[in-house]
Amino acid sequence: SQTIHQWPATLVQPVGSPLSLECTVEGTSNPNLYWYRQAAGRGLQLLFYSVGIGQISSEVPQNLSASRPQDRQFILSSKKLLLSDSGFYLCAWTTGTYNEQFFGPGTRLTVL
Amino acid sequence: GQNIDQPTEMTATEGAIVQINCTYQTSGFNGLFWYQQHAGEAPTFLSYNVLDGLEEKGRFSSFLSRSKGYSYLLLKELQMKDSASYLCAVFPRAYQLIWGAGTKLIIKP
């Protein structure tokens, strides 16, 4: 069966510090991978998606970036965090273009 | 633009039935999803509709009318564990799922 991992679960970072969040998927090949952010009481905002190694599509201009160095690994990064980057970051995977997405446990980021 | 509307909060009684509505205005349509999200946790998939009509899965059913841009999620025989947020999401185009803000459902004994 397929499993998706995210770490860390919780992170508190000062403004201006760098960020690296990692997501890995097990039990499937060539997944489509997604990064979302959810602010408190809000819906999910799509940040990036990837349909293959090295292929990244950005949905929202911001100080975040994403990379996919391996088939089942997706990384979200920032060089300098802003207060507005606080939120619940979720990684998801799917197969196909319009199929249901399966989420990792998420990382709760607080920028102080 | 893309817009998905859901009620912010609903309250229901254990054992009862509740209907959560979702209306959408999107540039395209390739399917509508319902997800359940417990506080502090990731969303989990509940149902998918791409054609008009009702899809039933146990205590949960979901309905879609594409001409009206409308869907609802019906929860029967409510249990305390159904207290959660319910998120409606639409695929207007490939790979890009647009999400509503979610409906927080409170179940009272």
Question: Can you lay out the helices and strands and say which pair or pack?
Answer:
The complex is a heterodimer of chains A (112) and B (109).
Chain A: E1 3-7, E2 10-13, E3 19-26, E4 32-38, E5 44-52, E6 55-58, E7 64-70, E8 73-78, E9 87-94, E10 102-103, E11 107-111
Parallel strand pairs in A: 2-11
Antiparallel strand pairs in A: 1-3, 3-8, 4-5, 4-9, 5-6, 7-8, 9-10, 9-11
Chain B: E1 3-5, E2 9-13, E3 18-25, E4 32-37, E5 44-49, E6 53-57, E7 60-65, E8 70-75, E9 84-93, E10 96-99, E11 103-108
Parallel strand pairs in B: 2-11
Antiparallel strand pairs in B: 1-3, 3-8, 4-5, 4-9, 6-7, 7-8, 9-10, 9-11
Structure commentary:
The complex is a heterodimer of chains A (112) and B (109). Chain A is mostly beta strands and 112 residues long. In chain A, 0% of the residues lie in helices and 58% in strands. In chain A, the strands form 2 sheets. In chain A, strands 2, 4, 5, 6, 9, 10 and 11 form a 7-stranded mixed sheet that branches. A 4-stranded antiparallel sheet of chain A has the order 1-3-8-7, with no helix packed on it. Chain A starts with a strand and ends with a strand. Helix content of chain B is 0%, strand content 60%. Chain B starts with a strand and ends with a strand. In chain B, a hairpin with a 6-residue loop joins strand 4 and strand 5. The mean pLDDT of chain B is 96. With 109 residues, chain B is an all-beta fold. Chain B contains no helices and 11 strands. Chain B is globular. The interface between A and B is medium-sized, with 23 and 24 residues.
